[in-house]
């Protein structure tokens, strides 16, 4: 490199080529850095979790334990008081729907998993049919709870109804509500794919 011309303060022609190459390298480095920042911003935006509204999320956080508790109360006291497995199971299923509305359908579906919904539905059917077929095996009719008296005592009818309400109906209803919600939210694909 040579010193700049004392009259003009500008470098000679041989310096111009070096300066333009250096400028090009600097420009390329700045452009590359800007591209990296844009890529990082795009990655950050796509990694950001779904949020509906702070008000909705806060309301769901506050209300969910009470709705779940009331749903379980209705389920466990359904044979002796108003309520039952259907109403309690519906409220337990709705708890998951509220979480999905507040925190996003896809993250909630991944958190719950299809195994839970399938297990609740299938397990409820197995309990219901098992209690009914047990009475048939003992020589009675389907769901003739009194035949369980030698095994569970004088309150066999109460315990049989509780088994059906809690283990059967509530589980089936909550599993079906969650399953139908997630299937509906996923959409319909006429080509047989996963979602719309």
Can you walk me through this structure?
- With 196 residues, the chain is mostly helical.
- It has 2 domains: 13-48; 54-186, no CATH class.
- Helix content is 73%, strand content 0%.
- It has 7 helices and no strands.
- 20% of the residues are buried.
**Low-confidence parts, pLDDT < 50 over ≥5 residues?**
none
Shape: elongated
SS-derived structural category: mainly alpha
**Gyration radius, to the nearest Å?**
33 Å
Counting DSSP H or I runs of 4 or more residues, the number of helices is 7
Domains, number: 2
Number of strands: 0
Mean pLDDT: 80
Which range best describes the helical content: under 10%, 10-25%, 25-40%, 40-55%, 55-70% or over 70%?
A: over 70%
**Strand/helix succession:** HHHHHHH
The main β sheet shows up as: none
Instruction: Please state roughly what percent of the residues sit in beta strands, choosing from under 5%, 5-15%, 15-25%, 25-35%, 35-45% or over 45%.
Output: under 5%
End-to-end Cα distance: 65 Å
Keyphrases for this structure?
single chain, 196 residues, mainly alpha, 2 domains, 7 helices, 73% helix, 0% strand, elongated
Write the layout of secondary structure elements.
Blueprint: H1 13-47, H2 54-76, H3 85-103, H4 105-112, H5 114-137, H6 149-152, H7 156-186
Brief sketch in words of this structure:
The protein is mostly helical. It has helices at 13-47, 54-76, 85-103, 105-112, 114-137, 149-152, 156-186.
């Amino acid at each position: 490199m040579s010193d700049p011309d004392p009259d003009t303060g500008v470098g000679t022609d041989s310096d111009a080529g070096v300066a333009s190459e250096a400028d090009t390298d600097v420009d390329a480095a700045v452009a590359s850095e800007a591209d990296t920042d844009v890529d990082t911003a795009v990655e950050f935006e796509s990694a950001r979790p779904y949020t509906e509204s702070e008000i909705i999320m806060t309301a769901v956080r506050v209300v969910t334990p009470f709705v779940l508790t009331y749903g379980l109360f209705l389920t466990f006291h359904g044979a002796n008081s108003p309520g039952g497995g259907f109403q309690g199971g519906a409220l337990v299923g709705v708890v998951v729907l509220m979480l999905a509305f507040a925190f996003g359908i896809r993250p909630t579906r991944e958190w719950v998993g299809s195994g839970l919904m399938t297990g609740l539905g299938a397990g409820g059917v197995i309990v219901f049919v098992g209690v009914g077929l047990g009475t048939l095996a003992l020589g009675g009719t389907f769901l003739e709870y009194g035949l369980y008296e030698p095994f569970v005592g004088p309150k066999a009818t109460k315990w049989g109804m509780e088994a059906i309400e809690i283990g059967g109906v509530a589980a089936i209803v909550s599993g079906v509500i969650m399953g139908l919600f997630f299937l509906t939210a996923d959409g319909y694909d006429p080509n047989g794919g996963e979602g719309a």
